[in-house]
């Protein structure tokens, strides 16, 4: 069995990878605070510690790396650029440089937020223009991967799903819990995205591990939706009262970090390799089927 190392094996995507494709590989995980109970081989490490990464990679010698670990709280990144850079950019650089001599195939999970959100329908030839520290540091990670790796895929995506290890706190879980508990929530009509579940993305990543492709790919739903419509669709699917959702504009909403508005993705390149990607409706169906709360 091939050896697959997953950074962030306790995160929403990392734990989904373990759940969805765990049987097919000899999986090793790196976590920082939350041990994944479904995974036998795990290392507790801070990815900003290069020496620790060298020791782990020297011991495992993985055939594949899926690098999901990141400082994902956008407002924390805005308030602490050094920590964001150390975690999202420099740790990615270190992983890429340590793995170079092993020929490990490197899958780097990046974000649709590398774009400024002014245009929408971004394809891989559009120039990134990050507008907050989270996006800047994730984009810098992309550049290190491109510079240091020969065998890699950079995946620009936007994900949703259920946390399998950590407390529920993701965007879709927040919408679900709020509507279930009959709380009123405000949702943006002018933030547009192309979300895909961590479950579907895990299965697509599995295929990319085997694929003969190096470069950058957008992977999301083949259509796009506003955050507000997403909430309304979710309410309809689960039988919640959609009038609990108040539509608002992101303009004037006070976040520490600026949010890009239209980060919808053109996924044609990925579809050329992987076949048709699912729609938002398909993916909400997956979220419903896999419900954990
Ligand atoms: N969530 C989204 O909406 C979204 C959208 C686009 C792209 N992405 C990208 O997708 C990837 C996965 O996101 P996610 O939502 O699954 O993330 P997540 O649930 O927030 O999990 C982050 C993971 O990174 C680990 N981690 C963070 N800092 C670390 C450090 N210094 N050392 C070691 N491990 C560290 C965490 O470990 P512990 O929990 O053990 O501390 C956790 O396993 C990220 O690269 C993110 O940038 C996410």
What labels describe this entry?
18% strand, 293 residues, 13 strands, globular, 7-stranded parallel beta sheet, Rossmann fold, alpha/beta, 10 helices, binds NADP nicotinamide-adenine-dinucleotide phosphate
How would you describe this protein?
With 293 residues, the chain is of the alpha/beta class. It has a domain at 3-162 and 197-220 and 265-280: Rossmann fold (3-Layer(aba) Sandwich). The protein has helices at residues 12-21, 50-60, 74-79, 81-99, 133-148, 171-180, 198-210, 227-238, 268-274, 280-289; strands at residues 3-7, 26-31, 41-44, 64-67, 105-111, 152-157, 159-160, 185-188, 192-193, 196-197, 215-219, 225-226, 245-248. The strands form 4 sheets. Strands 3-2-1-4-5-6-11 form a 7-stranded parallel β-sheet, with helices on both faces. Strands 7-10 form a two-stranded parallel sheet. A two-stranded parallel ribbon has the order 8-13. It is globular. The chain starts with a strand and ends with a helix. It binds NADP nicotinamide-adenine-dinucleotide phosphate.
């Amino acid at each position: 069995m091939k050896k697959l190392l997953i950074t962030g094996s306790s995160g929403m995507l990392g734990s989904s990878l373990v759940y969805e494709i765990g049987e097919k590989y000899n999986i090793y995980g790196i976590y920082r605070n939350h041990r994944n109970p479904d995974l036998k081989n795990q290392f507790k490490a801070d990815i900003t510690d290069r020496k620790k990464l060298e020791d782990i990679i020297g011991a495992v010698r993985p055939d594949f790396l899926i690098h999901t670990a990141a400082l994902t709280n956008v407002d924390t990144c805005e308030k602490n650029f050094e920590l964001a850079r150390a975690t999202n950019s420099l740790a990615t650089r270190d992983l890429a440089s340590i793995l170079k001599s092993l020929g490990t195939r490197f899958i780097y999970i990046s974000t649709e937020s590398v774009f400024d959100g002014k245009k929408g329908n971004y394809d891989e030839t559009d120039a990134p223009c990050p507008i907050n520290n989270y996006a800047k540091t994730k984009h810098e990670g992309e550049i290190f991967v491109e510079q240091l790796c020969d065998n890699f895929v950079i995946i620009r995506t936007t994900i949703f799903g259920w946390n399998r290890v950590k407390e529920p706190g993701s965007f879709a879980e927040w919408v679900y819990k709020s509507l279930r508990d009959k709380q009123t929530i405000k949702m943006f009509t002018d933030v547009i995205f192309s979300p895909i579940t961590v479950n579907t993305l895990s299965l697509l990543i599995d295929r990319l591990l085997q694929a003969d492709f190096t470069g950058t790919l957008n992977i999301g739903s083949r259509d796009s939706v506003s955050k507000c419509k997403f909430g309304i669709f979710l309410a309809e699917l689960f039988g919640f009262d959609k009038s609990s959702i108040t539509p608002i504009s992101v303009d004037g909403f006070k976040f520490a970090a600026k949010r890009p508005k239209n980060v919808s993705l053109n996924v044609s390149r990925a579809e050329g390799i992987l076949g048709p990607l699912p729609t938002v409706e398909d993916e909400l169906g997956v979220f419903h089927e896999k419900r954990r709360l």
